[in-house]
Amino acid sequence: MKRLPFILLSFLSTIVFAQENPNQTFKKELEKHCGKSYEGVITEGAKEGDGFTGERLVMQVLSCEANQIKVPFYVGDDKSRTWVLTFENDRLELKHDHRHKDGSDDEVTMYGGTTTNVGHPNFQMFPADQETCAMIDYACHNVWWMTIDEKSFSYNLKRIGTDRLFTVVFDLTKPVEFKEVPWGWEK
Q1: What predicted TM-score, i.e. pTM, was given to this entire model?
Q2: Structural domain range at position 100
Q3: Most buried in the list 26, 45, 91, 155, measured by CB within 10 Å?
Q4: DSSP assignment, residue 137?
Q5: 7 in any annotated domain
Q6: Hey, which bits of the chain come out as E strands?
Q7: Domain contains 114
Q8: What would the pLDDT profile of 86-138 be if each residue is shown by its tens digit?
Q9: Overall number of domains in the chain
Q10: Distance of alpha carbon 50 from the chain centroid
Q11: What integer pLDDT is reported at residue 14 of this predicted model?
């Protein structure tokens, strides 16, 4: 009977250490959609004249590499945006890659943040990093987050201290035919 607590503790340790890192689970869920595109709708923050409202919104899980996933986000005919998710050291980094029509970098590009912990398998949060604060002072208070489950993927932005909230939700149950590529990816 004296061995039972040790055996139980050993068994529980095995379960705890065998669990996958939540951001790796998040990555695997997103990778299931590699090569597919989905339409989205703004569920929070739509404003007339904001450049998003009334436009066709499409996310495209276009590139799935070992430690990086690139997801272009098309707004109507605008092909300038790609979400770049990099997985490194048990953290997940989100950067916003913005391009001009000729493929060159936009003046404001590669801003974003890194998770402060491993997150949740279906939810990852990215507070603005120091690079973003130096590049875009008003974005220093941004927090982005993404969610994913079997039915939907969401991209969200909240500017802390303001009423600024933006959410777009994509229906993962209905892939759409979409043959576009982001500006700068033509080669």
Answers
A1: 0.88
A2: 21-176
A3: 26
A4: G
A5: no
A6: 37-44, 57-60, 63-64, 68-75, 78-88, 91-98, 111-114, 123-127, 142-148, 152-159, 165-176
A7: yes
A8: 999 889 999 999 999 999 999 999 999 999 999 999 999 999 999 999 999 99
A9: 1
A10: 21
A11: 43
